[in-house]
Specification:
Strand content: under 5%
Oligomer: single chain
Shape: globular
Number of helices: 7
CATH architecture: Orthogonal Bundle
Largest sheet: none
Radius of gyration: 16 Å
């Protein structure tokens, strides 16, 4: 069975995907501000490295952790979801099947706790107090 990396076309496809993805993200007025002053060439390279590793490619990701990179940036669940929507659009534009897009987005979704720094991550029933949108450590007192 081939990896997602192989199914979407390998490194070349990922580099193109990252270009399209950031064009969409930077055109989004709700997200563009997060990238002011960012060396986009470097960021795109890191993102491609991450996707190669995350999608089963031949090289491990050796960059900083997702938590480190996104810490203190004020990213909400809304922002995370918008980025995910742009990624889905980029994947579909590259000809990736809806089934594979869903699988990739599910995998990326598992990173929300490390990326969302303004905690509005929805909890599953039975976790902690069982309430949605509680801040870290449970409901406020």
């Amino acid at each position: 069975m081939s990896t997602i990396y192989e199914q979407i076309g390998g490194s070349e496809a990922i580099v193109s995907l990252v270009e399209d993805f950031y064009a969409r993200v930077l055109a989004d007025p709700e997200l563009a501000g997060f990238f002011g002053g960012t060396n986009m060439s470097r960021l795109k390279g890191r993102q491609a490295e991450f996707f190669v590793a995350a999608l089963g490619g031949p090289y491990p990701y050796v960059g900083p952790s997702m938590k480190q990179v996104h810490q203190g940036r004020g990213i909400t669940t809304h922002h995370f979801d918008r980025v995910g929507a742009h990624l889905g659009e980029s994947l579909r534009a590259a000809g990736v099947s809806d089934e594979l897009v869903a699988q990739i987005l599910d995998n990326i979704g598992s990173l929300a706790p490390d990326i969302v720094t303004h905690k509005t991550v929805h909890r599953t029933v039975g976790a902690g107090s069982g309430r949605l949108n509680d801040p870290p450590g449970g409901a406020p007192h």
